[in-house]
């Protein structure tokens, strides 16, 4: 698809979405319009670009799960770097909770979102199941109750459930992985974040076939592209950024 044609399609989608009023209910509609596209071409924001915190699960003495010659902390860090690259390519600002193999308490990870006034928080993990299990697929978690530290965001119509739905649909569409849906859990790393936050379980390393796919850089790129596209989709739907529509259609 030619770049100019892609911009036109994105602009048409955004204009149609604006006509729907930018409601949370129409997030699903916008999501479906973007399913076949690459990461939406976002406008240039300079210093006003939304900031995303991307968290690589575990680290340091906390290796996370281990299976099929995969250590979760290492693969999570690799995926996080790829997500960061994709988000920055889409024009967003990104900070990671860790760039090396270090341990960081969960509350410190969530605190970075408050410190930097992040628009969204994404934690990247890998899943496991019992020995001999054939469980596969991707699932996205969110906290359904906002912490006290998030009260300043109470006026936002969008929430972590919307965010999780956008990320889950996009990453499964991009990878063709089994869609295990979104789930509400009060995991500290997302429950304590003062902004829309999700934890993405990017596949089961206890599954021989899924572990094999995750060992390929091309598949990890697909996972990262899907997560980034979900983030971009979610941000597009925020009525707090009306300039997005106007800029895209110029």
Key traits:
single chain, 250 residues, alpha/beta, two-stranded antiparallel ribbon, 9 helices, 8 strands, globular, disordered N terminus, disordered C terminus
Q: What is this structure, in a nutshell?
A:
With about 250 residues, this protein is of the alpha/beta class. The protein has nine helices and eight strands. The strands form two sheets. It has a six-stranded mixed sheet, sandwiched between helices. Strands 2-3 form a two-stranded antiparallel ribbon.
Describe this structure in words.
This protein is an alpha/beta fold and 250 residues long. The protein has helices at residues 3-19, 27-34, 72-89, 106-115, 160-175, 188-191, 208-214, 217-236, 243-249; strands at residues 51-56, 66-67, 70-71, 93-96, 120-127, 138-142, 179-184, 197-204. The strands form two sheets. It has a six-stranded mixed sheet with strand order 4-1-5-8-6-7, with helices on both faces. It has a two-stranded antiparallel ribbon with strand order 2-3. Helix 5 links the parallel strand 6 (138-142) and strand 7 (179-184). Helix 1 (3-19) packs antiparallel against helix 2 (27-34) and helix 3 packs across helix 8. The longest helix is centred in the C-terminal third of the chain and has 20 residues, at 217-236. The chain is globular, with a radius of gyration of 17 Å. The two termini are 20 Å apart.
């Amino acid at each position: 698809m030619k770049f100019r044609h892609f911009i036109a399609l994105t602009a048409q989608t955004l204009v149609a979405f604006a006509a729907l009023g930018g409601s949370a209910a129409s997030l699903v509609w916008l999501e479906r319009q973007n399913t076949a596209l690459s990461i939406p071409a976002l406008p240039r924001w300079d210093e006003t670009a939304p900031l995303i915190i991307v968290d690589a699960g575990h680290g340091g003495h906390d290796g996370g799960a281990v299976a099929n010659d995969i250590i979760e902390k290492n693969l999570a860090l690799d995926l996080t770097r790829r997500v960061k690259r994709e988000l920055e390519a889409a024009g967003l600002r990104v900070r990671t909770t860790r760039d090396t193999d270090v341990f960081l308490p969960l509350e410190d990870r969530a605190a970075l979102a408050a410190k930097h006034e992040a628009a969204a928080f994404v934690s990247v993990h890998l899943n496991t199941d019992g020995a001999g299990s054939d469980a596969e697929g991707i699932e996205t978690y969110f906290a359904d109750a906002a912490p006290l530290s998030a009260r300043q965001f109470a006026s936002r119509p969008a929430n972590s459930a919307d965010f999780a739905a956008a990320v889950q649909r996009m990453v499964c569409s991009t990878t063709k992985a089994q869609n295990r849906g979104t789930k509400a859990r009060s995991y500290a790393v997302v429950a304590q974040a003062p902004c829309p936050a999700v934890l993405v379980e990017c596949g089961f390393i206890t599954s021989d076939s899924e572990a094999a796919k995750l060992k390929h850089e091309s598949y990890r790129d697909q996972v990262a592209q899907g997560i980034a596209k979900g983030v971009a989709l979610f941000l597009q739907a925020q009525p707090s950024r009306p300039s997005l529509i106007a800029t895209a259609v110029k």
